[in-house]
UniProtKB/TrEMBL annotation:
May be involved in cell wall biosynthesis. It is a single-pass type II membrane protein. It comes from Sphagnum troendelagicum. The lineage of its organism: Eukaryota, Viridiplantae, Streptophyta, Embryophyta, Bryophyta. This is Fucosyltransferase. Keywords: Cell wall biogenesis/degradation, Glycoprotein, Glycosyltransferase, Golgi apparatus, Membrane, Transferase, Transmembrane, Transmembrane helix. The chain holds residues 107 to 583 of 586 of the full protein.
Length: 477
């Protein structure tokens, strides 16, 4: 839909782009080279030179360590270590958060990130992220090295003092045993240094915890001078939609959204069942109160006719209309879209702004189908192109859209509707562009005293805060 950008633009999108890369290579993943064209200047965030350098180094290592189906044994790559991302069965938001975390871990520990392409949908949704090599781990390696009897749980590995342990499978989901909670302790990380394979199962964004490990902090803080752009810079490198999804994203953006002066993304995610008219009305009121308070949408006014002022008023759109706003509503539930659309169909706006409201899908309920994952991916990307974004408390779907877009969201705090004793405000201006880590497991008893430099402690004090929608959660800021 748009022409291929110049070689220079392409090189900026893929560090260490092989000068010999043909246009065929580039065309294999158009989103990599075209994504920035759809973002306004305020939301383009070039990577630091030092991060580009780290990605180049990683890419070379990955290319050397990538395994092929015909490699007969893991022993062939004795100087390589791996993180095997084991995709789970939760929603796309959770999967992408944990995939990006696994990549951050791989970068900082110099391990190659590989995935089991038979699980889940990510291998069908995302482009191959690393130039000149694949991230798909041949099935026999997964079966033998990660799923097989030779693989230990973290607890077993700890019990045996890591003796003869070559493969450890860690569970970093929201429920963890005491042993699993110790994964991010510096002592555990030290023990894992000699383990070739780490199987990574998670549904969380564990990057804030990586910053708390002294030896990783110095690398990470140098790669990411702006701590609220870690997810942004990693996901724009790692998780790009394949061409068939990218083409759809472009088509929708151009057909419905891009011609308006302002694009507002509105993600409405209800975790509790809201299938009741009173609750739905409260959700709509919350959406409108937040949108008006933060000047995301213009104020609707009582129709002229009802005010008896219709005589000859110009409805042609030529004189009074000033600007236009396109709202993309992403939700499983159609009623929030309908209410918002009807409001702006039935009312003029105070300042004459024209508002169009759009919805691309309304799936009703979550399911694990590939088709729903494609829709979710498409909508996350479209939301990320917005100039302004509204998200829902506690939703990883919204976290990914905000992080990918590099946007500070306005958060609809649905706890105020669902829980009587909620004390936080109904509408919160996001403190960061980063996702929240809901389950950090940072109690003192987990790792004991971690010795940090004064610089690191100060950095953490400034840049890691409790999340606004989860008090015990942590967020990079
Ligand atoms: P979370 O549950 O809000 O943290 O978000 P997840 O992405 O982890 O899981 C929700 C899943 O429900 C998504 O992966 C989608 O399959 C589906 N879903 C939820 N909200 C939407 C939406 O606005 N649009 C689409 N297409 N799917 C959604």
């Amino acid at each position: 839909l748009v022409p291929l950008p110049s070689a220079a633009a392409a090189a900026a999108s893929w560090p260490n782009l092989d000068p010999a890369a043909s246009t065929v290579d580039l065309k294999a993943c158009m989103s990599r080279i075209q994504q920035e064209m759809y973002r306004d200047a305020a939301h383009q965030f070039p990577r630091s030179r030092i991060l580009n350098h780290a990605l180049e180094k990683y890419t070379r290592m990955h290319s050397r360590c990538a395994l092929h189906a015909d490699d007969s044994s893991a022993q062939m790559k004795t100087d390589c270590q791996y993180v095997v991302y084991l995709e789970g069965y939760e929603g796309l938001g959770n999967r992408l958060l944990s995939l990006v975390s696994a990549f951050a871990y791989a970068l900082v520990t110099q391990r190659a990130l590989v995935i089991d392409g038979r699980r889940g949908h990510l291998a069908q949704l995302l482009c191959e992220p690393f130039q000149n090599s694949s991230w798909l781990l041949p099935p026999q390696f997964v079966d033998e090295v990660i799923q097989g009897a030779a693989s230990a749980t973290l607890e077993d590995a700890m019990h045996s003092g890591f003796r003869n342990v070559n493969s450890v499978r860690v569970n970093l989901r929201h429920e963890q045993t005491r042993a699993e909670q110790r994964f991010f302790c510096p002592t555990t990380q030290q023990r894992l240094q000699n383990v070739t394979w780490i199987g990574w199962e998670s549904n969380q964004y564990y990057v804030p915890r990586l910053f708390m490990i002294p030896s990783y902090w110095s690398l990470l803080s140098s790669w990411f001078p702006d701590a609220s752009l870690v997810f942004n810079q990693l996901i724009r490198f790692l998780c790009l939609p394949q061409n068939h999804i990218w083409e759809q994203i472009q088509r929708i953006h151009v057909s419905y959204l891009s011609s308006s002066a302002v694009q507002v993304g509105m993600q409405v995610r209800r975790h509790l069942n809201a299938n009741n008219a009173t609750l739905a009305a409260s959700v709509h009121d919350l959406i409108m109160n937040c949108s008006l308070k933060h000047q995301l949408l213009p104020k609707p006014v009582v129709p002229l006719e009802e005010r008896g002022l219709l005589n000859g008023a110009d409805k042609s759109g030529k004189s009074s209309r000033k600007t236009s706003v396109a709202v993309l509503v992403a939700s499983l539930d159609m009623q929030y879209y309908e209410k918002l659309r009807n409001l702006y169909v039935e009312h003029d706006t105070e300042d004459g702004t024209v508002v169009s409201v759009h919805m691309m899908s309304h799936e009703g309920v979550e399911n694990d189908s590939y088709e729903q994952a494609v829709k979710a991916m498409t909508e996350i990307w479209l939301l990320s192109f917005s100039n302004k974004l509204v998200t829902s408390s506690w939703s990883t779907f919204g976290y990914v859209a905000q992080g990918l877009g590099g946007l500070h969201p306005v958060i609809l705090n649905f706890f105020t509707i669902d829980f009587e004793h909620e004390t936080r405000p109904a509408c919160i201006l996001g403190q960061s562009r980063e996702p929240c880590l809901h389950y950090p497991f940072v109690k003192h008893s987990v790792c004991g005293k971690v010795r940090m430099s004064k610089r690191q402690s100060k950095w953490i004090e400034h840049h890691i805060r409790p999340c606004q929608d989860e008090n015990r959660g942590l967020q990079l800021c």
